[in-house]
Amino acid sequence: MTATAPRFPAEWERQSAILIAWPHADTDWADRLGDVEETYIALVAAITRFQPVLVCVANDDVEAYARARLASARVDMERVRFVEVEYDDTWLRDSGPITLRDGSGFRLLDFRFTGWGGKFAASRDDRLVEELVERDTFHADRHDSIDFALEGGAIETDGAGTLLTTWQCLHERHPDASREELGRRLADWLHQDRVLWLDHGYLEGDDTDAHIDTLARFAAPDAIVYQGCGDPADSHHAELQAMAAELAALRTRDGQPYRLFELPWPQPVIDGGRRLAASYANFLIVNNAVLMPAYGDPADDAAAAVLAQAFPGREIVQVPCRPLIWQNGSLHCITMQLPEGLVAA
């Protein structure tokens, strides 16, 4: 009998929970903690309508506080579980586990997290997956520690062997490696047989060097949702138009063009003279729904309509995320989906 190869599941497959980390005064959110807590409360409330959420907390006091805030917001606490673990910040898309299905079990891939190429301190975040494993958080057969810098926000899979990523990010992390070498290594570790590269697309204020999850996302094996920019006067226009052309030139495994869904462009958000990285592509897929970042912008409802077309049959839930972009990330960046069966009871 031939063993089944490990598989990197798509985000739209069934999940056991969403993993997040609660912000507190020792994270980079300290200056705007009240605002960002409101986003986290809204996020947990939205997630628990559809499935459980696993909340990392730094200590007993943070847990007690988070528990009280969530309970007072009438969150379904039966679907909230806390785990105490150290972390530098709350961007779990990039410090959390990348999970492969391996036969009837799971394999956790624990790549190095370097604070997006050494921009920020990340030693505790880099140990996060190991710490969670030591606390018996997961039903996983293997925990593979891989000495290679890679963030979860840098990669998108269709669940059927195709990976989508950006050259800028991977090249920034590994400047001495060729595209062929990087593609081969990603394909081997993630068990993909195709790697599709984008050479265009970026957001001002983005610390990640053009993570794919701010730009273009699979909605199905033959469909991609992407952030557009229809304003010729905007500094992003040329790059995002070039990215749209790249996406139009990509082909599915069957040689067909992808079905493309263009998200509208939100108005610029400026903070102290700094442009913040607002993107509707940073949505999160959960069981039976898509949670989308809302910025209090006139385009919020139009973005929800596009996502409803891309994900028929799923409820589209807007989560207020304007406080998140102060730290240059959004909804998908602070979350990591955990496939069905992975979380220990």
Summarize the structure.
With 345 residues, the protein is of the alpha/beta class. It has ten helices and 18 strands. It has a single domain (15-339), classed as L-arginine/glycine Amidinotransferase, Chain A.
3D architecture notes:
- The protein is of the alpha/beta class and 345 residues long.
- The protein has a single domain, classed as L-arginine/glycine Amidinotransferase, Chain A, CATH 3.75.10.10.
What are the defining features of this structure?
L-arginine/glycine Amidinotransferase, Chain A; Agmatine deiminase; three-stranded mixed β-sheet; hydrolase; Peptidyl-Arg-deiminase_porph; 10 helices; 26% helix; four-stranded mixed β-sheet; alpha/beta; agmatine deiminase activity
CA radius of gyration is 19 Å
CATH class bucket: Alpha Beta
Low-confidence parts, pLDDT < 50 over ≥5 residues?
A: none
Q: What best-fitting shape do the alpha-carbon axes yield?
A: globular
Assembly category: single chain
Average the pLDDT over all residues and give the rounded result. 96
The appropriate CATH architecture is 5-stranded Propeller
| Number of beta strands | 18
Distance between the termini: 32 Å
Number of domains: 1
